[in-house]
Amino acid sequence: MTPLSGKPVVTAAKMRAAEEAAIADGTSVDILMARAGTEVAQTIRRLASGSEVLILCGPGNNGGDGYVAAAALRAWSLPVRVAALAPPATDAARNACAGWSGPVETLAETKSAPILVDALFGTGLSRALDPAIVAALRRLNARARLSIAVDLPSGVDTDRGVALGDIPAADVTLALGAPKPAHLLYPAAGLCGAIRVLDIGVPASSDVMVLAAPDLPMPGPDSHKYSRGMVAVVGGDMPGAAELSAIAALRAGAGYVLLLAEHGALQPHAIVRKAFTPDALTDKRIGALIIGPGLGRGDEARARLDQALASAVPLVIDGDALHLLDTARLDVVRNRAVPVIMTPHAGEFDALFGKGEESKIDRARAAALRSGATIIFKGADTVIASPQGAVRVAQSANAWLSTAGTGDVLAGAVGAFLSGNANIAFDAACAGVWAHARAARRLRGAFIADDLADALTAVRSRL
To answer: Name one GO biological process term (predicted).
Structure first.
């Protein structure tokens, strides 16, 4: 088993292509199934602690994996039963079933067990399960001490992360070969429980990957405040939001933070405060400019956004500024010679780029291509997409981030990394999202945005 961090995220089609490539190189389907089923069995063996295991097998190759796992568990003298939805429908699944020497019960009549293994349907499911199957799953799941899904919980859309019905959640999901979008995208991700990737000997590659810890430089003997990055934050109608961004930029490692606002708090004293003027944006030492937190949506806010867009400074566009991005301003974003990072949540994203039925990954990538900006599509399943096509998907975030001001903190962290990271927008966006999530995990629960900004100091010091 390996953790998700840094792993490629593959669609159902990409996983099939990887398996077909392995078969073309001489590895038979039966060998692949034997590997997958044995890996599943080894994991079940560790988790079951000697308790009886019930494996539910579907008619396809996911069910075949279940038969292999059951045979291995029996060979290890562990108590295991098998219940099938239907007879095996593929040659490999039939061969795997033939290797199981015990009885095969029916899904409708089987009795529960402390350990439930769902090997009914894996990747590629596109329609809702029959209500009778869902009822059986829910009955058995409710009575199990631990439920384990093989590859994916039965009843989720692999690529879109959509739940295809009112299916029960697994406690553990064993991703075969590589994580799939449904392991990371909600609502399906919420049904997967703890996710572990099992190596089945099928190399998979993708330009979509699970977000990993950034590799950031530490200050050296030649460092000074400007080499570490100067961040400017444009204030507006709600000064607290801009203050949070400014504090977060400092805590994330920026060497100098300039808050361009007419009013606001006086601490921390490390923040330099000046009134906003268009001339302030011409300072060539500014490595990143954050606009949007607390900006407002009136005429003055529009004027400040236009001045920021006309500047030669890399931009982080957040909050209110996103609401002011009409078609003409999006054209300006696309044609800028220096990087732009945009940080919309779902409502802001829909207003900017329209709603869609595609996966969050596909929508974020299309938005980045259309706008020419790096997109941080925020949420419990934040997706970062570059205009060049690279995508990173963050693992589930701390639900306590659902409080006012945490987005302002994210903008500040991203601005800090953009100012001090050679203006590589995609890397800065990824680093900001990772640090923001790590700070939230350190705080655990019931924190406020001010706490989150302060927690960035400890996170950055350990990168």
So the answer is: nicotinamide nucleotide metabolic process
Beta bridge partners of 383: 377, 393
Topology, domain 12-207:
Rossmann fold (3.40.50)
Nearest residue to 119 (alpha-carbon basis) of 161, 81, 79, 160: 81
- The whole-model pTM stands at 0.94
Binding residues for AMP: 378-382, 407
Alpha carbons 52 and 48: distance in angstroms, whole number: 7
* Residue list, annotated binding site for (6S)-NADPHX: 61-65, 122-128, 151, 241, 294, 345, 408
DSSP code string of 334-369: HH-SS-EEE---HHHHHHHH---SS-HHHHHHHHHH
State the binding site for K(+): 62, 118, 154
Binding residues: 61-65, 118, 122-128, 151, 154, 241, 294, 345, 378-382, 407-408
Question: Is the Cβ–Cβ distance between 89 and 64 less than 8 Å?
Answer: no
> What's the pLDDT tens digit per position in 151-187?
999 999 999 999 998 999 999 999 999 999 999 999 9
Q: Which two tokens stand for residue 367?
A: 């938005």
The single-letter code of the amino acid at 267 is: Q
- At position 142, the amino acid (one-letter code) is A
Fold matches, 12-207 and 230-461? no
Distance between CA atoms of residues 389 and 379, nearest Å: 20
- Please state the domain extents for the chain: 12-207, 230-461
**Domain spanning 230-461: CATH superfamily:** Ribokinase (3.40.1190.20)
The tokens for 246 are 């400014």
